[in-house]
Amino acid sequence: MNFGCFAIVAVNGLALTFNVRARYYVFFLVIILPAVLGAKEFGIQGYIVDSTGKPTVGANIDSFWSANGIRSSDVTALNNTKNDEELRTYWTHVGEMVPFKSEHSCKSDIDGSFKLTIDDDCHAVMAIDRLQKTGGIAILRKGREEEPIEIRLLPLIHVQGTLKCVVTNKAPYWSHVYISVPSDPERPLDCLRLVSCGSFDGQFEFELPAGPYVLNAYGESIRKQKEDIDVRAIPDLTLTLRPSMSVVDLGALQLVPSLSLDRRKDMAQLDGTWGDYTKHYGETPPNWHVTDALGVNKDVNVADFKGKWLLIDFWAMNCPPCLGENLPRLMKFYDEHEAQRKQFEIVSICVDVDGELEILQ
Question: What is the pTM (predicted TM-score) of this model?
Fold first, then answer.
């Protein structure tokens, strides 16, 4: 498959492929949508115990952690500030592990019990004792997420490293590193991120329990007028922390150039492949040149929907809200308006901006 040569579109659950003139690879992917639409959160409960099985009191539990001492309540101020010194203050405390979701995180009771509310797209929770010496992770069982769980705390492993831009041979102006749990093929839409660490010095530090993880790193190579993520560690780094480890130094990870959406837009405008769609308001939409189809005639085209309201929705594999919220809502709307289906159609197009679908070929 050549990059940017074709697309597959879902029309009410039916798939069709057509040629497009675009800079991006467009593809339709059949996915399993959440069975319960509209659910945002659910409660879990369980016990925190030490290595001998005794209850641990005062342990912090959350589904997402910050390694900068930043909580969700700090995010509004962080997003609104434009002062470099204030930003540096927020990202200074590298390695300081705190539960990020301040409104949801909890502590274990005297008998080690806890109750926690988490987002419905999460299936991993981490607990760390109040001295931050031991910790553990629980992966919720699919279909049994609300059953009581036990998290056994074992010595934490200190993970550290630095980041360097290949082009400049220097640390990035700003960087961000995510540690995630491995993907679960049975829950492809779930959020896998467990902890994050940002830095203005190209550094990262985490305290993690033993287990398998995925590290994702990106940043801005130099200071710019507006945020421009232009370097990344490719591919993501997989690592396995063993109980026998105490400190793991990953050394200097290389960040290679990665075109941001803004940069791609600028390049497309320069080479003439970027179009201003606002100039075409009121015009007849261009035809789709179908090369393959499933469930509909391969010659189907935009004109075939004449006389109906037509909604065209664009989404991407790297857009969890698209997959977990927008698409399920569109399907729910479609199902709930069965009596009016002769009046409208929904077309959903997946745009693979970052080349993530290449692994499916």
Answer: 0.72
